[in-house]
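Teaching assistant's notes for section 4

Start the section by putting this record on the projector. Ask students to predict, before seeing the second block, whether Peptidyl-prolyl cis-trans isomerase C will look compact or extended. Collect guesses on the board.
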Amino acid sequence: MPQATARHILVSSDELCRKLMTQLRNGAEFGLLAAQNSTCPSARNGGNLGSFEPGKMVPEFDRVAFTAPLRTVHGPVHSRFGYHIIEVLERD
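Reveal the predicted structure now:
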């Protein structure tokens, strides 16, 4: 079964998500922004979600995790939980 390893930042608004994406593009550190802004419990780990199989995340997240280029920041990705910024670190 394929697996992906990713980290993310989850926020409640598209506006904040876009603001954080701009900061990341300008060199901000992903883990620090996750710790300061993400509403997901993974924030305490810099947004790290570890490895997971397809179907373990919401479909919108899975699409990015299993198709997007590695080590590139993607977002905003909207799901029922809010707005995600996703970085896929590895994929098997």
